[in-house]
């Protein structure tokens, strides 16, 4: 429902304040890519709702010129689902970090993927809790030393890519925030996709996670596009997603384009348009029907 | 002739799986269609098969406000029921039972035992749930009702299963009716004709319907007794009403999802019980901070923790009062009965929209799972809907739009996402007029103070938007009985019983808890001997009332055994307290279920 044809530049999607992230933070690249994606897709600020939880990366809605909701820690997907279900004309983008999405919000991550809610979820995965000054996260590697694991973590990390595929997500990608062009393309694909799209982004924390730095990723990331990967093949996608060593894959792992409908398509109540635009209570006829059933 | 005073109670007891609900429903509909009033209470346990279930159905020509004190007819579907409850029957009462399986034991004087040799009279070898239908047939005779009423009811109930099933059920029902005609003495007063036909609903159905009438377009829930009836109503009806229903992974998801849907502009609601409500509380504070109107229902059950999932209690008052961290604005309301629950929903939505904040409804198992007659004309299907200060979708942005504009009333017009020219952020972090976060690097004590005061200002006169409670009954009464929420009806009946005993009492039924009409309540109670009646151990309302008004009650009647008050529990308590020096009276539950 575009109401104007003025083409906007990424700059038009700049928020009212500048980010308060640390200089060199990977999240700058993600913000930049989101603004470019919105511009390149010809979107208008009022057509987008950016929903986040809590954490350094969850401050993002303040820095982008769209409708925004800075909700509770871990709850961005539940809130975003509510927004999308109430008004599916809106483009809903959820943003946040690995602790917010895969830790405290893990249950919603599982079920939002299962429902195939038509959302684009961009996770700035820095493998650390940054805003609380450096504790272990659900994606921290085993052995990693953090403030809450000073002798090294003895827990294995979650794999967001395989989790998302297994839970039923229909567009699953990973990117490195240092390659804004590549990330922009993956976000655009996610926004265009009808269904739940996860873009897990390596977004280094330059202050509290020196293990997984920009240099760490620059030396290791390999694009799936260069590997002849088949995005229909979920088993191959999972195998590629598990790789963690000298080669770490980024790109589009899995994309189910037409075989699985989104919740918007499946929910019969939405066939008459967004429920948020339906005001009013019961008609006479509906009231009659209800009372007849009670007699 | 009954002179308009027909008042009859029957109970059906058995184990889970014996199909108690069906004869209960059939009977309720027959009675309501006849224009008689009805109140039912089902005592059950958290079990799918086995245990003991005891459904009490009170039927009267006058409106009934509780399930009452006495029992005129017992239908014992198993031996356990007979052993537990036969002793409750007094002279003039009757006990019906399948004499193939159940033996009566010692009945009191004047109790009519009505054995039904079900196999013999139906010719069936395997009886199963048919025994309920046989018993219904026998009941029709005892109550002086025409068999055709039951026949019609069975035909409707089993219509979908085909003619054969209908005929078989009518046949066994008639066997029971005929056997009763030949062997049992009917009650001296046949069940009279009442007025116009009445409908039947449960409190949960009333809450759900109240939402639909209020324009709820998004309902989400996680199943939890005793709130699940609300979800079931929406699941059954919502699609044809254009309402979305979501069953969500947990109550945290439920709560945040309704806040999201409400933010996008849909009226959104959810219901749960105390445990689920505990998980929702962070989102309630978030809705208040982001200034998003939505409604949360807590159908209280006996706590703490998992507690007694199928028993009633008013134990979550302080949980509701403290549901979320920080100082924040919200309504908390406890409806007085099923119709009041219905009416409360649209009223609360209008208030929540007006002041852009969440509202909490405290129901309980007694209201929500009880079934009641209701005259269709008493249901206002088209209540006023006021969405509060909303920016029109087509509105041009007259300059800069400030979502949290600091206005004299504290209310800032709300633009829904999608409105061109009004792009803004809502935030759970403290924020200024323009949604800029005051936490992190922008900390500013003066802006923080202004933001707190802006939101608080909305509530300065909130109490004036709703009706204060009033004393009902004789002004010069010896005692005032104070209750909140679901006890209003049973207190009224206790007052009638007290009058028969020569004690005059009046009633103050409190519905709105936040805002509480502290001044009006203090004025109403000052100089009075008042007794607080509540369904919990520690006197949660008594403590709240004292904290808000400084008033202490003369005495307290409290019950926390899981079962609701019967009128005589309260009447006994009041008489006892007035005869002594106040204190706390805890009635003893006679019906063991």
Count of discrete structural domains of chain A? 1
Count of DSSP helices of chain A?
Answer: 10
Share of helix among residues of chain A? 25-40%
Q: What portion of the residues of chain A fall into strands of 2 or more residues?
A: 15-25%
How many domains make up the 3D coordinates of chain B?
A: 3
Can you offer a commentary on this structure?
- The complex is a heterodimer of chains A (295) and B (593).
- Chain A is α/β, with parallel strands linked by helices and 295 residues long.
- Chain A has one domain: Rossmann fold (3-Layer(aba) Sandwich), CATH 3.40.50.970.
- Chain A is 32% helix and 15% strand.
- Chain A has helices at 27-40, 76-86, 98-104, 106-115, 160-167, 180-192, 214-220, 234-242, 263-266, 284-294; strands at residues 48-52, 67-70, 91-97, 120-125, 171-176, 197-202, 221-223, 248-255.
- In chain A, helix 6 links the parallel strand 5 and strand 6 (197-202).
- In chain A, helix 1 (27-40) crosses helix 6, helix 3 packs across helix 4 (106-115) and helix 4 packs across helix 5.
- The mean pLDDT of chain A is 96.
- With 593 residues, chain B is of the alpha/beta class.
- Chain B folds into three domains: 7-183, 3-Layer(aba) Sandwich (Pyruvate-ferredoxin Oxidoreductase, domain 3); 202-378, Thiamin diphosphate (ThDP)-binding fold, Pyr/PP domains (Rossmann fold); 471-585, Rossmann fold (3-Layer(aba) Sandwich), CATH 3.40.50.920.
- In chain B, 36% of the residues lie in helices and 19% in strands.
- Chain B has 18 helices and 22 strands.
- Chain B has helices at residues 21-33, 79-85, 118-122, 130-142, 147-157, 163-183, 203-214, 228-241, 251-263, 274-290, 317-321, 338-355, 365-369, 445-458, 488-500, 518-525, 540-549, 567-579; strands spanning 7-16, 37-43, 50-60, 73-76, 94-98, 112-116, 199-202, 216-221, 244-247, 267-272, 294-300, 331-333, 358-364, 371-374, 425-427, 471-472, 479-484, 505-510, 512-514, 530-534, 555-558, 583-585.
- In chain B, strand 21 (555-558), helix 18 and strand 22 form a beta-alpha-beta unit.
- The mean pLDDT of chain B is 95.
- Classes of the chains: A alpha/beta (295), B alpha/beta (593).
- Strand 2 (67-70) of chain A pairs parallel with strand 15 (425-427) of chain B.
């Amino acid at each position: 429902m575009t109401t104007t044809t003025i083409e906007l530049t990424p700059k038009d999607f700049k928020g009212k304040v500048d980010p308060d992230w640390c200089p060199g933070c990977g999240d700058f690249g993600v913000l930049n890519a989101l603004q470019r994606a919105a511009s390149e897709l010809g979107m208008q600020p009022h057509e987008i709702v950016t929903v986040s939880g809590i954490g350094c990366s969850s401050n993002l809605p303040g820095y982008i010129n769209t409708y925004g909701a800075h909700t509770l820690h871990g709850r961005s997907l539940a809130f975003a689902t509510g927004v999308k279900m109430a008004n599916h004309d809106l483009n809903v983008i959820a943003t946040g970090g690995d602790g917010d999405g895969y830790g405290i919000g893990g249950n919603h991550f599982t079920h939002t993927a299962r429902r195939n809610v038509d959302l684009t979820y961009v996770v700035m995965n820095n493998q650390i809790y940054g805003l609380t000054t450096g504790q272990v996260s659900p994606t921290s590697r085993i052995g990693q030393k953090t403030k809450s694991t000073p002798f090294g973590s003895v827990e294995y990390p979650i794999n967001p890519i395989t989790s998302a595929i297994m839970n039923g997500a229909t567009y699953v990608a990973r990117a490195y925030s240092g390659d804004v062009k590549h990330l922009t393309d993956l976000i655009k694909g996610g926004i265009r996709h009808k269904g739940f799209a996860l873009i897990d982004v390596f977004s280094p924390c330059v202050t509290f996670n020196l293990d997984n730095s920009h240099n760490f990723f620059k030396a290791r990331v390999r694009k799936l596009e260069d590997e002849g990967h088949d995005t229909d093949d979920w088993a191959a996608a999972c195998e590629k997603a598990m790789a963690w060593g000298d080669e770490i894959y980024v790109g589009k792992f899995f994309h189910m384009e037409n075989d699985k409908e989104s919740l918007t398509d499946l929910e019969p109540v939405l066939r008459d348009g967004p429920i948020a635009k339906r005001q009013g209570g019961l008609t006479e006829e509906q009231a009659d029907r209800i009372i007849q059933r009670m007699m | 002739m009954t002179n308009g005073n027909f008042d009859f109670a029957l109970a059906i007891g058995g184990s889970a799986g014996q199909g108690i609900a069906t004869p209960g429903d059939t009977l309720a509909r027959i009675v309501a269609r006849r224009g008689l009033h009805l109140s039912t209470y089902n005592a059950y346990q958290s079990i799918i098969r086995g245990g003991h279930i005891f459904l009490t159905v009170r039927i009267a020509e006058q409106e009934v406000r509780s399930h009452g004190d006495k029992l005129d007819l017992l239908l014992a579907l198993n031996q356990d029921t007979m052993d537990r409850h036969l002793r409750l029957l007094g002279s003039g009462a009757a006990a019906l039972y399948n004499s193939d399986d159940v033996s009566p034991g010692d009945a009191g004087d004047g109790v009519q035992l009505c054995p039904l040799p079900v196999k013999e009279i139906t010719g069936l070898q395997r009886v199963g749930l048919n025994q309920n239908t046989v018993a219904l047939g026998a009941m029709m005779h005892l109550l002086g009702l025409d068999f055709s009423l039951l026949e019609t009811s069975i035909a409707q109930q089993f219509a979908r299963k085909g003619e054969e099933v209908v005929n078989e059920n009518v046949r066994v029902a008639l066997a029971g009716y005929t056997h009763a005609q030949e062997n049992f003495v009917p009650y001296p007063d046949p069940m009279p004709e009442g007025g116009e036909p009445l409908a039947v609903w449960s409190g949960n159905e009333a809450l759900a319907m109240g939402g639909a009438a209020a324009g709820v377009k998004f309902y989400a829930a996680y199943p939890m007794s005793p709130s699940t009836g609300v979800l079931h109503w929406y699941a059954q009806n919502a699609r044809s009403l254009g309402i979305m229903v979501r069953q969500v992974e947990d109550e945290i998801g439920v709560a945040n999802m309704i806040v999201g849907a409400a933010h996008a502009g849909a009226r959104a609601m959810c219901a749960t019980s105390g445990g689920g409500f505990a998980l929702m509380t962070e989102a309630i504070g978030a809705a208040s901070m982001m200034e998003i109107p939505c409604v949360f229902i807590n159908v209280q059950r006996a706590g703490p923790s998992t507690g007694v999932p199928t028993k009633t209690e008013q134990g979550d008052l302080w949980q509701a009062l403290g549901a979320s961290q920080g100082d924040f604005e919200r309504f908390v309301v406890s409806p007085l009965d099923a119709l009041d629950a219905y009416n409360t929903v649209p009223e609360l939505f209008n208030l929540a929209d007006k002041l852009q904040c969440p509202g909490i409804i405290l129901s309980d198992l007694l209201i929500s799972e009880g079934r009641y007659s209701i005259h269709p004309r008493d249901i206002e299907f088209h209540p006023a809907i006021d969405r509060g200060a909303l920016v029109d979708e087509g509105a041009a942005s007259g300059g800069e739009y400030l979502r949290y504009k600091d206005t004299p009333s504290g209310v800032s017009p709300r633009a829904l996402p999608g409105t061109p020219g009004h792009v803004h952020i809502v935030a759970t972090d403290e924020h200024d007029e323009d949604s800029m976060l005051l936490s992190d690097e922008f900390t500013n004590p003066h802006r923080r103070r202004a933001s707190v005061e802006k939101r608080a200002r909305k509530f300065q006169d909130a109490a004036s938007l709703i009706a204060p409670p009033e004393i009902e009954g004789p002004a010069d009464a010896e005692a005032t009985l104070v209750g909140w929420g679901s006890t209003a009806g049973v207190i009224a009946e206790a007052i009638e019983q007290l009058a028969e005993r020569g004690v005059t009492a009046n009633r103050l039924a409190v519905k709105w808890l936040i805002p509480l009409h502290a001044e009006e309540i203090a004025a109403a109670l000052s100089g009075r001997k008042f007794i607080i009646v509540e369904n919990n151990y520690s006197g949660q309302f008594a403590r709240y009332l004292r904290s808000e008004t400084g008033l202490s009650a003369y005495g307290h009647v409290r019950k926390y055994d899981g079962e609701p008050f019967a009128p005589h529990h309260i009447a006994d308590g009041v008489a006892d307290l007035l005869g002594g020096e106040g204190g706390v009276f805890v009635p003893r539950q006679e019906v063991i279920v």
